[in-house]
Design a protein that fits this description.
globular, 6-stranded parallel sheet, 7-stranded parallel sheet, alpha/beta, DNA polymerase, domain 1, 724 residues, Rossmann fold
């Protein structure tokens, strides 16, 4: 009897040899991964211990009494000179018992209470890698993380596959053992031979399944990656700067110091969160490791099907959307449609190609119809703009039902009567899964948010009205939870460096004041806003801006300068001369904007990028910078938030310094007073996904109304008469 052209016994032995090799490779991956993780923990644990001790050293020893609900008497311990929990935590039982009045029970209780506080503190601390303080301990940690980061998401797939394979092959190979020798099989009983044949069939199926899933080359690649070393401390730091998000993500996973689960899950109702957690995300088509909150966001979109992902800027809404698309592609879906502003089309194309194995097909420009036809025929991720979408064949005419429709900056379609909204709605109506992305879905009025929900889940729209807003935050959360998920940076990205915001108040020079009084007398609101730059040779703001840029240059830091006005930026460019690497404005084509940002990021050391705040504040990633200068305050709170978030986002590795240039006793002061009130209301609605005890209309201060109020106030203050 033969099998595959060879004697059955020989074929069986060859199969078992092949299975042995596969099993050895699987065990090798598990051993290599275990060694890599152990090496990281060996470096990480002392750093975490130091952070815990530092926190404990500022916690009053009186907290021990709170932990034990008043049962622990600490008077004697305090009299002995113990002032902090850290001092007690670092003491031994013997040392505490030497204190007069402290017996064995009190010493044990004190140590247990201090240990409990230390355990709680350990869950909150996180190691920061500071590129400006490359100490030996953190450098060693980076070197240990290097191999795991190099392996990326393949490491998890390889480890999962190896564990499953070992668990399946081990008992099968034992049962098939008699087939390794002719005599053993000859003298085996009939029942034993039947068991051997069954085991061989199982081995054959396991090996075939592993080959089909690509496990042999995956094991080889991951083992090689895990054994990689950076080569030098400098190389480790360079790699960290290039992909800090991956390092921090892995570090949070290994240290168990990730964000609070409720915060990471957007404080969804428990039943809904359980359903989302129950979905296993298929990441076979992904090329990036997701943070826990990002995986949850992708699964939320898949489970709830038609939702708004309103995460704060910098949290990776794009990669969460790509993860959802990749999951669906792994399950057999072939066509996906992404609609976005023209300014971020290139970024979307690059992200899809870099973060997944999905085919990205831009459908834009003069050849958009040909590209669209190619997408209809071949599938992939069609990426188009709001303006281009309405010019393409509609959903009904195309004959394609996308596996998912993604709409980036979805607040662009808040008005259902616009052409772009109608085009999006046509596709949305014929697509089961729709994902709206927007960092500020309730920027000015809750009605805008209700409009978005109406397009996704019409049955929920009546529950998202002003009545629920007036009823308070709980009613609002309960109403929008099925279709809305939002997380904030401070809740889920503990590794982000701090943002240091400084208001730079300047006194008008004589020339500034003259230009400002003229603008006030004319009642020209926009001219009042830019009057501080009208006479560059005497501009106090411009002088301060030069100083800030010079300081950044001295420290080798990159700077982004934002202004609402192209004219102001041209003045700044004239003042800085050759130090400016580029200027982003609304008139610059989307492709050119990305090129300018790339060149800015690639520049060695200090560089300055100028940007109109509307052009650079949305969609472009500028985390190469660590200094932001705002030439004037903005009317909408979100405008400044968005601009700063272009820099202070996932991947940032330095503290971000934000300098807002302000002129005392001017329109700047009046705007801040009004906008501050608006921002508090905005926070209540949009940032916190929460509704204050007010009417939604209270959030909006229209630009026209704000301008009128400020002009009138300044005219009265300066005694200038408005022109008829």
């Amino acid at each position: 009897m033969t099998e595959g052209g060879a004697p059955a016994g020989r074929a069986a032995r060859e199969l078992l040899v092949r299975a042995d090799g596969l099993l050895d490779a699987a065990r090798g991956v598990l051993a290599d991964h275990s060694r890599a993780v152990t090496a990281v923990r060996t470096c990480l644990d002392p750093l975490l211990d130091d952070l815990v001790r530092a926190d404990l050293d500022v916690i009053s020893v009186s907290r021990l009494k709170d932990v034990t609900e008043g049962r622990l008497r600490i008077g004697a311990i305090e009299q002995a000179g113990f002032r902090t929990v850290g001092q007690v935590y670092g003491a031994s039982r013997y040392e505490l018992r030497q204190i007069p009045g402290v017996g064995a029970q009190t010493a044990d209780q004190a140590l247990a209470a201090a240990g409990g506080i230390a355990h709680a503190v350990r869950d909150t601390v996180a190691v920061r890698m500071d590129v400006d303080d490359r100490n030996e301990a953190v450098t060693a940690l980076l070197g240990a993380l290097y191999g795991l980061v190099a392996a990326g998401p393949d490491a998890r797939r390889a480890v999962d596959g190896a564990r499953a394979l070992v668990g399946r092959l081990d008992p099968l190979l034992t049962a098939a053992g008699p087939a390794r020798g002719r005599l053993r099989l000859v003298f085996a009983s009939r029942r034993s031979r039947a068991g051997v044949r069954e085991a061989l069939a199982g081995v054959r199926a396991a090996v075939a399944g592993a080959v089909e899933r690509g496990l042999p080359p995956l094991f080889a690649q991951v083992s090689a990656d895990l054994l990689r070393e950076p080569g030098s401390p400098a190389a480790a730091w360079v790699d960290f700067e290039l992909r800090s998000a991956e390092y921090y993500s892995l570090l949070a996973e290994l240290s168990g110091s990730g964000p609070d689960r409720d915060a990471a899950e957007g404080f969804l109702p428990s039943g809904m969160a359980d359903r989302v957690r129950g979905l296993r995300l298929d990441d076979a088509r992904l090329r990036v490791s997701l943070r826990g909150y990002q995986s949850f966001g992708a699964r939320f979109a898949l489970v709830q099907k038609r939702v708004i992902l309103g995460d704060e800027m910098g949290l990776g809404k794009t990669v969460q959307a790509i993860a959802a698309l990749a999951h669906l592609a792994a399950r057999g879906e072939t066509h996906f449609l992404v609609v976005c502003p023209a300014s971020v089309l290139i970024n979307w194309t690059r992200e899809v190609r870099a973060r997944s194995t999905l085919r990205a097909l831009p459908v834009h420009g003069p050849e958009r119809r040909e590209a669209f036809a190619e997408w209809l025929d071949s599938g992939g991720v069609a990426l188009t703009t709001f303006d281009a979408l309405h010019a393409l064949p509609g959903a009904a005419d195309s004959g394609v039902r996308p596996g998912m429709l993604v709409v980036d900056e979805a607040h662009y379609v808040k008005n259902p009567e616009t052409r772009r909204s109608r085009a999006v709605s046509g596709w949305s109506a014929r697509t089961d899964r729709v994902l709206f992305l927007t960092g500020t879905p309730m920027e000015n009025r809750v009605e805008e948010f209700r409009s978005l929900v109406r397009q996704l889940r019409p049955e929920l729209a009546p529950s998202v009205g002003a009545g629920h807003g007036a009823a308070g935050s709980r009613a609002f959360r309960r109403a929008v939870a099925p279709a809305y998920l939002r997380r904030n940076q401070e809740d889920v990205l503990a590794e982000l460096p701090a943002v240091v915001q400084v208001d730079e108040w300047e006194e008008f020079s004589e020339g500034d004041l003259l230009a400002y009084r003229e603008a006030v007398a004319e009642g020209h609101f926009m001219r009042m806003r830019r009057a501080a730059y009208a006479r560059p040779e005497t501009s106090a703001k411009l002088d301060r801006l030069r100083e800030l840029v010079a300081d950044a240059a001295g420290n080798g830091l990159k700077v982004v300068v934002f202004s609402y006005f192209r004219e102001v930026l041209e003045t700044v460019r004239g003042a800085l001369g050759d130090g400016v690497s580029g200027l982003l404005s609304g008139s610059v084509a989307a492709a050119r904007r990305q090129e300018l940002v790339d060149a800015f990021a690639a520049a060695d050391g200090h560089a300055v990028l100028l940007s109109q705040i509307q052009a650079g504040g949305v969609g472009l990633n500028m985390q190469a910078a660590s200094v932001v200068i705002l030439c004037e305050p903005q009317i909408k709170p979100t405008t400044e938030h968005q601009a700063v978030a272009r820099v202070h986002r996932m991947g940032q590795i330095r503290t971000v310094r934000v300098h807002r240039l302000l002129a005392a006793d001017s329109i700047d002061q009046r705007m801040l007073d009004i906008v501050a009130r608006k921002e508090r209301l905005f926070d209540a609605y949009a940032r916190r996904s929460d509704v204050a005890e007010t009417t939604p209309d209270a959030v909006d201060v229209s630009e026209g109304e704000l301008a009128r109020r400020i002009v009138e106030e300044e005219q009265r203050r300066l005694g200038a008469a408005a022109r008829p």
